[in-house]
Amino acid sequence: QAPADRVSGARAATPVLLKPALMEAVEVVAGGERLQLLPQRAAYLPEHRSLLVADAHIGKAQSFRRLGVPVPSGTTQDALARLDLALASTGAQHIVFLGDLLHSAQARSEPIWAAVAAWRAARPALRLTLVRGNHDQHAGDPPPAWGVACVNGPWPLGGLLLDHHPEPAAGAYVLAGHVHPAAVLGGKG
């Protein structure tokens, strides 16, 4: 974290965040850019009207079910609903996926494709960019009909370099996904 960057643990000020869904956002400054960390698992860059979403893993449950792992269905619809909430609360005009938009080649199923295609068709003016991640290498780029610009990282946006892998870059603030925080509890029970 650069010295000029700060993290505010307090709720964002009401005059800056007028929409109710943003009242739960936490504001940070990174790389000279103001970000609002949203409860919908996204970050919003207000000066760029862009949402940053890491590791969407569309089709992950479908991929697991095809491998015989019994997991619930509906995860793609849940992810799309979270995107809708984040879009509605921010007015974002651009979503940048920080890698792993699709989980695997097994995610390429008609129900998944149809759900995302319908979601995309309802938002034709929304710009979508995918900064490719490790899962995207195996799953491949999304279908052209989804209108997703696919780029390799690091990809510049304002004062940030956006990437999937959190690799440092000299003189730049890299914002990335890929690392999935977790906690391990030990002991009895």
Please provide a written account of the structure:
- The protein is an alpha/beta fold and 189 residues long.
- Helix content is 22%, strand content 26%.
- It contains 4 helices and 11 strands; from the N terminus they run E-E-E-E-E-H-H-E-H-E-H-E-E-E-E.
- The protein has helices at 60-66, 75-90, 110-121, 134-139; strands at residues 6-11, 26-30, 33-38, 42-45, 50-53, 94-97, 127-131, 148-151, 155-157, 160-163, 173-176.
- The strands form 2 sheets. Strands 1-2-3-4-5-6-7-8 form an 8-stranded mixed beta sheet, with helices on one face. The protein has a 3-stranded mixed beta sheet with strand order 9-10-11, with no helix packed on it.
- Helix 3 (110-121) links the parallel strand 6 and strand 7 (127-131).
- It is globular.
- It starts with 5 loop residues before the first strand and ends in a 13-residue tail after the last strand.
- 34% of the residues are buried.
- Residues 1-18 have low confidence and may be disordered.
In brief, what are we looking at here?
The chain is built from 4 helices and 11 strands; from the N terminus they run E-E-E-E-E-H-H-E-H-E-H-E-E-E-E. By secondary structure, it is an alpha/beta fold.
